[in-house]
Amino acid sequence: MSKLKEVSVKKELKSRDNPCDQVAPAQTTHELLRIVRAAQPIPRVAVARRLGVHRRRVTVLVKPLIDSGILREGAPDRSVGVGRPPIGLSLRGEKVFLVGVNIGVSQIHVGASTIDGKILSEDHFPTSIDPNVTITSIRNSVAKLSTDLSDRSLTVVGISVVGPTDCKRERLLYAPHLGWRDIPVADMLNLDVPVLIENNATATAIYESHRRRQQGATKTAGDFVVVRAGTGIGVGLVLGGEVFRGTTGADIAGEFGHMTIVAGGKACSCGNFGCWEKYASAASAVELYVGDSQRAKMRGTIRFTDLVSKATAGERRAQVTLERVGSHFGIGIGNVICGLGVARVVLSGELLHGWQFIEQPARAAIGMSLAGRLSRWSLEQGDLHGADLGGALEVAVEHYLATIVGKTTRAA
Ligand SMILES: [Zn+2]
Questions:
Q1: How far is the centre of ligand 1, averaged over its atoms, from the C-alpha of 254 (Å)?
Q2: Residue 157: pLDDT over 80
Q3: Using CA atoms, how far apart are residues 316 and 307, in angstroms rounded to an integer?
Q4: Mean pLDDT over residues 293-301, rounded?
Q5: What percent of the chain has pLDDT over 90?
Q6: DSSP of 337-383
Q7: Residue 180: which residues within 8 A CB-CB, separation 6 or more?
Q8: Helix, strand, coil % (nearest 5) of the chain?
Q9: Cα–Cα distances in Å, from 321 out to 53, 295, 303, 361?
Q10: How far apart are CA 261 and CA 164, in angstroms?
Q11: Whether residue 184 has a cis bond before it, omega within 30° of 0
């Protein structure tokens, strides 16, 4: 063996001593790009520390990304104030933009952003019960954004939806609250760029992962469950910094909102009875408050935030309603922790507006469950306001970064 080859083999064996260095180059490059995006401008040494690899490995990974114009090293685009600008790695992307679309039960939120998350333009409009009308409105909105931002080119569209999607993320399989079944959203939009459809709980999980990277988290700090409660309840799972979408072909994951917690309970829009979201979502809280006899009269006249306002003003009936919802919320979270074996829970969605009344009964219910007795579980609040559009945009960003990784590792 030549001296040079021997050194090379020794280096290879040494790099295998570090478990993070054994990760496939594509996966490491993808995580490197996520870290750079979340913390730019970031010095190479900080990237190495957060990736858990030697600095030499970062040099190898970064070189093709700088050579191909994906990354730059130096001061950031934006002003950094007085003094010497920090030197570090940043993502380039001055000529492109992404679009995120959150299809909510009552409203559509469309937004265009730069790669690093700066919102360039936004649009809102009501969700039509007719999917053809809604998709046409989205298409028109995306076309208008593209015209308004003609100095940049659209690269990818990420869409978050209130229901499970197929494993290719092209179709919305079922949205019980909208009554939509098997909607080929990507085909119907018929755009010239990739369109990715993601369940909104999973989109929120991607969004919360990015927020944690912005706060300095490493991959090993990235195991958590997102429980998102609004009109319904969805669960997103992040393991080792990656979202888990279920096994290929299953087309369903995280649909804990339709887990039965009351046998023979309230009828759910999914066709079953006693589902978790009928007892612990923001919509179910309003139903419980209004009550069966009053429902016809008050339906549509009171929102969840009104209910929270009444509770905050001291109305006991509103407070008791939120406490009962909190208890059911906690029962379901205990089941999720037990079932998935992930004890760190990040909460998201409209229900958080009432957290001051929901938290204590929810914690008490989790504490009563097997999860509460056996594991060191934690509850933390996610971002209350940015996850809807933010989640859809992160879906687009993830595809953009994956495409870069594909091109870079193929060329290497
Ligand atoms: Zn259900």
A1: 13
A2: yes
A3: 11
A4: 63
A5: 66
A6: HHHH---EEEEESGGGGGHHHHHHHHHHHHHHSHHHHHS--EEEE--
A7: 131, 163, 172, 174
A8: 50, 20, 30
A9: 51, 15, 14, 11
A10: 20
A11: no
Hey, is 158 helix, strand or coil?
A: strand
d(CA 97, CA 120): 9
How far away, in angstroms, is 151 Cα from ligand 1 center? 46
Which two three-digit tokens encode residue 5? Answer: 């080859």
Per DSSP, what are the bridge partners of residue 104? none
Query: Measured in angstroms, how far is the CA atom of residue 152 from the centroid of ligand 1?
Result: 43
269 Cα–ligand 1 center, Å: 6
Distances (CA, A) of 369 to 331, 339, 348, 380: 7, 12, 22, 18
Phi/psi-derived region of residue 307, left when phi > 0, alpha when psi is between -120 and 50, beta in every other case: alpha
The pLDDT value given to residue 20:
40
Contact between 348 and 387 under an 8 Å Cβ cutoff? The reply is yes
CA 258 to ligand 1 centroid distance, Å? 4
SS3 408: helix
Residue 80 has pLDDT above 80, yes or no: no
What pLDDT is recorded for position 294?
57
CA pair distance 53, 382, nearest whole angstrom: 29
Count of residues for the chain? 412
Contacts of 281 (CB under 8 A, 6+ apart): 229, 230, 231, 232, 233, 257, 351
Q: What pLDDT score does 16 carry?
A: 42
C-alpha 365 – ligand 1 centre gap (Å): 21
- Has residue 259 got a pLDDT over 60? yes
Q: What is the pLDDT of residues 11-56, one digit of tens each?
A: 444 444 444 444 567 888 999 999 999 999 999 999 999 998 999 9
Task: Tell me the DSSP string of 12-29.
Answer: HHHHHHSGGGGS-HHHHH
Please count the other Cβ atoms lying within 10 Å of the Cβ belonging to residue 166. 16
Q: Is 334 exposed, middle or buried (0-12, 13-18, 19+ CB in 10 A)?
A: buried
